[in-house]
């Protein structure tokens, strides 16, 4: 049961990792447009930078999950007894 909950938590974290950088960049673009009267063109680079940040964060979450799974697999294999493993 706890494994299912941890997987749901990872999916939620991945969703937030994809969404938040994009929303933050678009919010900064909104502030630039309203406060500094910059043209609406600033949304285009903001959207691209937000997508880049989203991909970077999602990749880091992916690496953390892979690292955790390898660690679990290594701990599981350390308790097994192999034919060639004497000590």
Order of helices and strands: HH
CA distance, first residue to last residue? 35 Å
Mass-distribution shape: elongated
Query: How many strand segments?
Result: 0
Q: Please outline the major beta sheet.
A: none
Mean pLDDT: 85
What proportion of the residues form beta strands (DSSP E)?
under 5%
Structural class: mainly alpha
Proportion of helical residues: over 70%
| Low-confidence blocks of residues | none
Q: How many alpha or pi helices? A: 2
Radius of gyration: 21 Å
Structure report:
Keywords: Membrane, Transmembrane, Transmembrane helix. Pfam families: ATPase_gene1. InterPro entries: ATPase_put (IPR032820). This protein is mostly helical and 87 residues long. It has a domain at 23-80. Helices cover 80% and strands 0% of the residues. The protein has helices at 2-35, 43-78. The longest helix has 36 residues, at 43-78. The mean pLDDT is 85.
Topology of helices and strands:
Elements: H1 2-35, H2 43-78
Helix pairs in contact: 1-2
In short:
This protein has 87 residues and is an all-alpha fold.
Features:
single chain, 80% helix, 2 helices, mainly alpha, 87 residues, elongated
């Amino acid at each position: 049961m706890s494994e299912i909950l941890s997987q749901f938590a990872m999916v939620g974290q991945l969703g937030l990792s994809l969404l938040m950088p994009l929303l933050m960049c678009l919010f900064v673009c909104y502030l630039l447009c309203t406060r500094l009267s910059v043209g609406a063109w600033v949304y285009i680079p903001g959207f691209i930078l937000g997508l880049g940040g989203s991909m970077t964060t999602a990749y880091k979450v992916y690496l953390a999950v892979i690292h955790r799974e390898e660690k679990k697999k290594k701990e599981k294999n350390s308790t097994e007894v192999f034919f060639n493993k004497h000590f």
